[in-house]
TrEMBL record:
Residues 437-451 have a biased composition (Low complexity). Residues 437-458 are annotated as: Disordered. Transmembrane segments: none annotated. The lineage of its organism: Bacteria, Bacillati, Actinomycetota, Actinomycetes, Kitasatosporales. This is Lysine 2,3-aminomutase. Coiled coil: none annotated. InterPro entries: Aldolase_TIM, Lys_aminomutase/Glu_NH3_mut, rSAM, rSAM_sf. It comes from Streptomyces carminius. Its cofactor is pyridoxal 5'-phosphate.
Amino acid sequence: MSLMVRSPVETERFRAWGPHQLDEIAARYGIPPDLQESIRLVSRVLPFRVNEYVLSHLIDWSDVPDDPMFQLVFPQLEMLREQDRRSLVRLTGTDTRRSDARAAVRRIRERLNPHPSGQREYNVPSLDGERLSGLQHKYRETVLYFPGHGQTCHAYCTYCFRWAQFVGEPGLRFAARGPTGLIAYLHRHPEVSDVLVTGGDPMVMSTERLRSHLEPLLDVETVRTIRIGTKAVAYWPQRFVTDRDADDLLRFMERMTATGRQVAVMAHFSHPRELGTGTARRALARILSTGAVVYCQAPLIAHVNDRAATWNELWRTELAAGAVPYYMFVERDTGPHGYFRVPLARAVSVFQDAYRLLPGLARTVRGPVMSATPGKVVVDGVESAPDGKFFRLRMLQARDPSLVGRPFRAPYSPTASWLTELGADPSTPADIAAAVHGAAGAAPSRAGSAGQWREEHR
Ligand SMILES: *Cc1c(COP(=O)(O)O)cnc(C)c1O
Ligand code: SF4
């Protein structure tokens, strides 16, 4: 019995399903018992969360377990090492103490590099000597804002680099309880024109809550662009269409654009299927009707979207929906990275094969991009020179603006999947080498004439 009055169109209420509902999900969608068992096992270590929309509109159950949407949200057995799986099976025995089981799970998580690049700990600005938690300021013009109430998502991507915070590891404490610190910081830093609101997913917040975090930004004249990072169009498009406060959300977005600011929804789409439902298309159309712009980005992930045809279709579909293809990312080394990793050499060919056959207007996309400690580095291609084979790289974003746009190169490797795995090119300009080797001032560590590209925190 509910006292709430619901509008007749609101047929679906958001409800998250986790490991505790696995039996129910399995019964409804017909997951075979062995697959159920492996999901249950792996979800003791890695986060698992889905919802009705993802289950019934995105996953193709006739193609499970290979289906890319199933791979996107359901933990897979091969995500854990054989010996970790075996110890988890042993722990499931009835005579294991719960504290022992928890400790074992924690040890397995520790081996999965739960805090890549120290995301939240680095670039946290301060004001009058006090650290402002929930903020990150790395590039001159852009501040990242993590509202405390938006640190979860409508479903979890198995490849998420923030997975550790979803299983209760420290992380949430870096989020901001409210915008007071952000606003004070922005008044003191007029060079910041962009605020990027991120999470988790800020769109898990009610409109009222979201407004309480964002409305004060409208009084800061120097803020010209408000970006909102979200996967809600893919995972819960009802947020923009039929949720109780969907209309309020759109009205608030309209108000933001009416102030002359650019409101950009940075939409995370991993696969063209996510744009294929009527609700997703309506969500995009409604967002665009507010005057907001939609930019699209996603990482390249084995088992999910590691084919050129998938990306070509994804970018075309985004363009057709009025959105702008923006970044193809390289996945970071965290969580079940061994399962998802795509070598840079392959990433370049997937990107180029997909890009070559795009209409010009979709060629706004850039990639494959590594969001690394010194900045965003794009792999422009592979070059065969008289002195060997190289990756052509370029900084798209850097702490030091003078490095942006500068091309450099690193020796080719068929297996490397991150900047840190590339041997350094001795001909790299010193400032780029220094930036890549360690922005915190660490000296490049040299191993022979071609040093190893290191990031300072590893
Ligand atoms: C990617 C990113 C930005 C935004 O960069 P753009 O190239 O302007 O999209 C800002 N801050 C951090 C830390 C980032 O990783
Ligand atoms: S939507 Fe983004 S933050 Fe949420 S689980 Fe997926 S990758 Fe992680």
